[in-house]
Each structure stands twice: as structure tokens, then as C-alpha cells.
Amino acid sequence: MKPRLVKSQREMEGRFEDVWVLVDDEDEVETWPDDASLQVVGSPAPRQDGAVRAGGAARYTVDVQLAGMLHALVLRAPVARCRVTGLDLDAARATPGVRAVIGPEGPLAMNGDSPLTAEPAWAGAPVAVIAADTPEAATAGLAALAPTFEALAPLDLETGLNEQRFTEDPRETVRGDPDAALAGADARVELTCETPAHVQSPLEPHAAVARWEGDSLTAWVSTQGIFDARRELARRFDLAPEQVRVISEYIGGAFGAKQGAGTEALLAAELARSTGRPVRLALGRHEEQVVGGRRAWTRQTVTLGARSDGTLAGIELAAVVDMGAGGWIFPVAEPVLSIYACENVRAMVFPVRTSLRAQNAFRAPGVVEGVTVLEQAMDELAAALGLDPLELRRRNHIDTDQGSGLPYSSKRLLACYDRAAELAGWDGRDALREPHADGLLRGMGCATQIWWGGGGPPAHATVRLDSEARAQVTTGIQDIGTGTLTSARMVAAEELGLPLERVFALGGDTLPNVYSPVSGGSMTTPAVMPAVRSAAGKVRRILLSLAADVLEISADDLELSGGRIRSRDGALDLDVVEVTGKLGNATIDGSGARGPNPEGFRVNTFGCQIAQVAVDPGTGVVRVERVVAVHDVGRIVNPLAASSQAEGGVLQGIGYALSEELVIDPTTGFPVNGHFDDYKVPTIADTPEIVVDFVNVPDANLPNLGAKGLGEPPIVPTAAAIANAFAHATGRRTSAVPLTPARVLEALA
Amino acid sequence: MPVSIEVNGEAHVLDVEPTRRLLAVLRDDLALTGTKHGCGEGACGACAVLLDGRPVASCLLPVASADGCAVTTIEGLARHGTALQEAFVAEDALQCGFCTPGQIVSATALLESTPRPSREEIRTAMAGNICRCGAYPKIERAILRASGQDTA
Q: SS3 for A631?
């Protein structure tokens, strides 16, 4: 059939939207069977750009240096809510080396709302921006602004909740009759826990460099979404898409915080427009910690009612979310709605407006928060029923998404429980509670992971094979550190039957106009890799057809692997270059598009983590000694990078569980710990033994690859497993995460 | 004030403000951008360089303090390729890679003083280098591998 447009559904972090999808039968490839003997996919491969990164040669946005480039600095609100009462723009303009000063009144070349304001409504809101020849001159210009502010009382959470100051209407999702179910339950537990404001803290801050050439703009942006950034810049500066080129070749971490162009690229482009010179705007560390974003603080109360056999009769969740200035309400209710079988559920979410920047995405936004509290309540329920915590979870297993009524495309969570229990020594966990010679209290806890991660269209790729049988894969992937470009290289190499070193994958540049989605929602692997494989499949078919002509044999009788073309009867065996060499300067090109998601399923990822902790009852210090992480994300493309993703997710979860918490000064509304010495992210000294395993069975209902995303799943259950291990060790719970020494001592008192 | 420093074996006499940080001079004046500005407060290790063989936070060091010293950056180490760099790649001891130059500089100093460090010695020596992606388990393995030890 000819190419056609088909209505399909795509999902991003639990939001579903209908999209038109270009369906081309030429894109279809046979799904690799579970037992296919693959040469490249499924075997560990180092990153294709590892040596560049390890040699200091990778050019991140903050490393871009252009002739005549100016350095920009932003004046920010020093308290959360205030009015600017004085701003000496002229003095700043008169400062030696200062080339441009823009205040809240503009003027701006860009359309739409100014990113600058004279009435800041959140801590660190931008007030003015300066571009100067050197960073030192920009600093001097900033001082010359001599701003004065009238401070206003910050909007605090508790008042906001009492006065119902919401960013949008509270949400209530109900199914069945939760009140009756909870009232009639054989066992009932209620647990309230606060979860912290959790700062993404990428080591490379938000940054952009902008350069105009005539009416064309090139922007280097540290972003997870180069195409979103291009669209935003084109719209703001009234340009056609091809007049904007966004480059994001290397990104020093993002974790959800770096979406679209960001204020940085908008202001850099504005300043570059008005000065006629390239401009760099990079946040300092303190700015990054204060305005870069955060996972929202929550306070959740979960009530569980169960029958005597442990099956859940009813669930209620009331979640208060500190939204700051707003943003999308992340799916904090998803865990109570979907992890366990339960017909009677009520989930209420209260999005309170406060004087922080709008909360934004941080790796598995919403679901980390929800799981952290629900899974603690599940352990309390297990204790109330006298059931093993893992057994309680098994008894509430369900293979259907209860919101939509659709079956999961695949779900091997029970296998995750079994494998995690085996690797962790779960059956012997009560022996950990015996007294230890070192005086520490030990325990072991588990938690379940759910997340999406099925990806979807649109995503495109092109593959170009040259006469030396070297293939270039072009994608729009921005590799934020996950290694997805290496995965693209592997998938193409597999399909082309070429050794890995003959294939290279490109991304991080909008110029080729090959679209990939934002690096978020655990969607890059499931969205882009099928497109890569389809593109490579077309090149493979052309190559075999050419080989058939050269060898005077039917293409159906030829195989391609390991860089060699062989006839199935074994009579012919030649290097692929003997065919491609005849191309001269010509190339074989193929393009591929991601097809629609399968109808009638929900695509989710699942997993189980088990943590072992040691608690010092004298100091209140909790150490994580071991974490076992077993996840079901379908086929694993690169086991080496996959284990790295899992370890990294676990470590960020450990930070969330034990030490990371943005603390706000109630009088100013401003964060007080916006530095790495007071906002404590885990170091190598905090790192436990982390044992990672995957079910690694392709999802039979996800055509082409059977692979789901892995970026987010590993952070989801870590903090809950640690809190449960703490409760197992001590018999107590803290009223808030993270489990700081102060909270632990209070809980043990 | 003229400051004489040798950077990666090359002698430089720089006419710079003596209080400018070594990191800024390396990155902005000498275009050696492999050394990263992670926090500017000496709290993350991304800016680590070797000063006469000792690891220092170049974001805190006034360039005048480096007068007469030999500075080695990641570019200097990479020029000849090192077992550490190979091990970091082979073990996947990097994700976004932003902290990696600092990690490798710190690990170089560790192996210089302790050619076969124990896991505990690695964890102590490397605790000042933050990796937000969480490559720590593999950084430990890479250092063991580069020092010819069992990584299992």
C-alpha cells in the first residue's frame, strides 16, 4: 500500500494525545524473535563517543567559544516576591565593556511575554540581563544596576492550602466506592509522608550560545529537545524553521530540567540580535540550583484497606503538591491508580501555588513521589496483615491498566519480584535484624516500580552507506548522557550486518531536519530505534539487491552479517566492500519512520528494587549497603549502558531518600541551600553495591524491536525501598523523606 | 602581572589579573575547555587539574598561585592516551561525561600516589568528584581496571 496517514495515540509521561502518523509499509521490518542470534544488539558496547568524552574533547554548550562572543549575566529577584523599585540601567550601560542591558521594560526584538519582570513572583525570577565583553565586565555591569526592591511576603504552602490558592482546580479521580470499601476492610492503614523538593542539579548548568548571521540564528543550547527549542526560537523571533539551527551535541546532564529553548536561549538570542555579536548565557551553580528546576515537594496521605487475604479493597490518596508558580501537575496519583489491583480508589491532588519557580520534570516526575509514599503504606499494610511485603505485592498483581481497561502490552513484574528476592537474599532478611557487632541496625525493604516508556511516533532516521561500506545514521537524538546514540549505532549495525566500527550515529543538530522527540518520558529507545532499524532495513534491501545483480543470484539467497555477504548454500562468501566498492561517490540511502503504537494495549515498564540499610542509632546516619534493581523494559539493546542507567537512577534515588532536600527560608521564600556543599548529592563514598538485572524479554506487542525505555524506571522505587528497609531495621518511620539524621533520631526517640 | 606557567608541557607567560582563577585562564585564555566549571566553589571536582602533580580545584586557585608551576589538564593526559581513559570508556564509567575530565585527573593523582588502590582508598580519594549521572560503581571499576586489579 502507498504511504498513508493513520490516527494513533502517543504517550508522554502518562499524557495521551491523538496524533496523525505517517505509515509506510516499506518501514516494516520483521520483529526479531526472542531467540534471534543477534550479533550486536544485546551485547555490551562502549559508547561511540566515549574516548571523546574521556579525553576532554567533547564540546558542551558552555565550551562554545566564538570570535567576538559576549558574556551574559542575569539579575534575579533576591527574595521570592518583590517589586523592583530602582534599577540604574544607564549606569550599567556606561560600565566599561558592557554592550547591552535589557530591563523589565525591554525593548525586545522577540515576540510574546518578556522573560524579564519588575514584579518577580518567584525566587530567582529574572529582572534584567547584561551582555559584556568579558565575564568580569558583565559582573561589574550587574553591580552597577544597583537594584532596589520592595520585598513582599512570600506565598507559603500551608496558607495557600488553607486559602485554596491553587494553580488549577484540584483533581479528583474516583473509581468504585472507596468509602464503603475502606469502611468494610478487614485491615486498614493510613500513612502520611512528605517528600522533598529535589533539584535535578545537572553538572553542566542551563546554558545557551546564540549567533545571528543575517536573519538566520544558530543556537547552541544545553537542552533535551532541540526541535522544541527550534520551534520556540522560530516563533519568538518570527523566523521560518530553516532559519533556526539548534545544536546540542553534548549535554552535561539534564534529568528533565532542560526543556526547549529555555530562558537562556531566548535571552542569548535577544542580546545577540541587539548587539550583532554572539552571546553566551550560562547559569552559575547557585542560579542553577535555585532556578534550574525541581521535583515538587509533596505531602501525601495514603489510606489502604485490605481483605484478610491481602487483596486491596480500597485506596485513598490525598496529595498536596507545592507547584511553585505552576507547571503541569505530574502524575503523583498514578501509582495508587495503577500499580495494584483495586476496584475502589479515590485520588485527590491539590496543586498549591507558592513563590518558587514552576516545578518541572525530574526523572519520572510524579511517579517517584507517589511510589515513595504508597509503597511505604503497602509495607505497613503487610505488617498489619502479618504478610511478607513481597507476597502482599504479588497478591495484588494485575495485568490490565485499570484506568483504560486495556491490557499491558507485556508485564513481567512477577519475574522481577522473584529475581530481586533471589539476588537480595530476601528469604533471610529477618536475620539482618539480629544484633550486629558494629552496633548498627540493619533491615531490608522492597518497592515496586511502574512507569510508561513505550514511546511513539513521530520519530525518523536516515541511514547512508558509502562505497567503503561505512554507514552514517542521522537522527535528531540529543544524547543527554544515556548513550542512546550508541544504541542507534548498534541497531543500524545489526540490521546492516556490519561490524560496529563501520557505523556511526549522529544527533544533536536540527540542520539535517531528521526529527526525534524530546529526550524524556523514557521514549528515545522505543521511539527512535525502530525508525533507525527501518531506515537500515531499506539500505540492507537495496544492498542485497545490488549484490544479487553483481553476483547473478537471487537476493533471497543472500545473507548479510559481520560485514560479509554470503549465499545461503555457502558457495559465495565475500566482503561487503566488494559490492559497495562499485558505488564510487554514490551512496545507498534509506529513511525510516516510527510506526504507530499497537492498538488495544497500554505500554508500561515495571520493576522491583530491594534495599539493605544500616542505621546508626547514635548518630541517626543511614547507610545504604546494597540495592538490587530488577526491571522489565522489554529487550535490552546495550546491556552496558542499560546497567549504567539503572545504577544512575538508583543513586539519584538514594539522594532523594537520604540527603537531597531544597530548604526554603520562610521569611524570604528563597532557597537557602543552593550549593553543592549544602545540597548534598551522593558521592562515590555514598555508593552501595548495586546489583542490576533485567528480565530482557522483548515485548511481543511492540513491533520492530520490542524495546521499551529505561531512563526513568530505575529511580522510581529506590527511596521507597530504602524507607521500607529503615522501617524493617528500626520498626519506625520518619514523617518525611529524606531520612536525614535529625529525622531519624526523632523517629527513634 | 605576568604569570609563568607550564601547561601540558608548554611554557606560557600570561599577562593576567593575578586573582583570576586558573580555571578561567585555562578555559577562556588558553581554550582548554576540557576542564569544566561545575560549581565554581570547589565543591564538585569538575575543575580538577594537576598542579605540579597534585590535584587542585582550579576554580578556586588564583592564577598567580600557579606562577612557576606545571599544570596538567585532561588535554595533557589525553595527548598520549592513558590506561585510565581507556578503562573509563571500556567500563562505561561516564554518562553525560561532563565530570569525566575531573574524575580522570583525580584518579591519575590517586594512581600516582597509590598504584594499586583498594576500593576503600578509591572511595576516599574520589569522594570530591561529583557525578550527577551516578557512574560511581563503574568509576570504581575503571580505576581498578586501570591499576591492573580485578574488577569483579
A: strand
Instruction: Judge: A644–B73 Cβ closer than 8 Å, yes or no.
Output: no
DSSP tag of A602: B
- What is the rounded average pLDDT of the residues A279-290? 98
CA atoms within 13 A on the CB side of A555: 9
**Does the interface ipTM go beyond 0.95?**
yes
Nearest to A53 among B35, B94, B130 (CB): B94
Q: What is the mean predicted confidence (pLDDT) over A412-437?
A: 97
C-alpha to C-alpha distances, A619 to A629, A680, A723, A743, nearest whole angstrom: 28, 18, 17, 11
Residue A439 touches partner B, C-beta closer than 8 Å:
no
Say if CB A476 and CB A514 are below 8 A apart.
yes
- What the block records as the C-alpha cell of B62 is 588564583
Subunit contact B134:A284, Cβ cutoff 8 A:
no
Residue closest to A553 by CA, chosen among A587, A579, A580, A589? A579
CA angle A267, A270, A271 (to 5 degrees): 85
Q: How far apart are the first and last CA of chain B?
A: 52
Q: Does residue A68 sit at the B interface (CB-CB below 8 Å)?
A: no
Continuous segment of H or E residues that includes residue A484 = helix A484-496
Which of B50, B88, B95 would best serve as a mutation to test chain A binding (most A beta carbons within 10 A)? Answer: B95
The C-alpha angle A83, A89, A92, rounded to 5 degrees, equals 125
Q: What is the pLDDT of residue A36?
A: 83
CATH architecture of B81-146: Orthogonal Bundle (1.10)
Among B7, B35, B39, B108, the strongest candidate for a mutation testing the A interface, having the largest count of A CBs within 10 A, is B39
Contacts A–B by Cβ distance under 8 A: 168
The pLDDT of residue B1 is 78
Cβ neighbours of A70 in B, within 8 Å? none
* Residues of B whose CB is below 8 A from A54: 78, 85, 88-89, 94, 97, 100-101, 104
- How do residues A325-346 score in pLDDT, each as one tens digit? 999 999 999 999 999 999 999 9
One-letter amino acid at A297 equals: W
Asked if residues A49 and B88 have their Cβ atoms less than 8 Å apart, the reply is no
Q: CA-CA distances (angstroms) from residue A9 to A89, A282, A533, A601? A: 50, 37, 21, 11
Among the residues of A307-462, which ranges form H helices? 334-338, 367-385, 389-395, 413-424
pLDDT tens readout for residues A26-64 = 888 888 888 888 999 999 999 999 999 999 999 999 999
Give whole-number Cα distances, A196 to A329, A673, A674, in Å. Answer: 16, 13, 14
Which chain B positions have a beta carbon within 8 Å of A63's beta carbon? 27, 33
Q: What is the pLDDT of residues A548-602, one digit of tens each?
A: 999 999 999 999 999 999 999 989 999 999 999 999 999 999 999 999 988 899 9
Q: Answer yes or no: is pLDDT of A298 > 90.
A: yes
* Beta carbons within 8 Å of A337's beta carbon, 6+ residues apart: A173, A345, A347, A402, A403
Contacts (Cβ under 8 Å, ≥6 apart) of B10: none
Quick one: fold of B2-77?
Answer: Ubiquitin-like (UB roll) (3.10.20)
| A559-564 CB contacts, 8 Å cutoff, 24+ apart | A559/A497, A560/A496, A560/A497, A561/A39, A561/A497, A562/A39, A562/A497, A562/A499, A563/A469, A563/A497, A563/A498, A563/A499, A563/A502, A564/A497
Q: Where are the beta strands (DSSP E) in A104-215?
A: 126-132, 148-152, 171-175, 187-195, 207-213
> Do the chains contact at B126 and A285, CB–CB below 8 Å?
no
Structural domain spans, chain B = 2-77, 81-146
Residue-by-residue DSSP string for A491-507: HHHHHHT--GGGEEEE-
**Segment 35-54 of chain A within 8 Å of chain B by CB:** 46-47, 49-51, 53-54
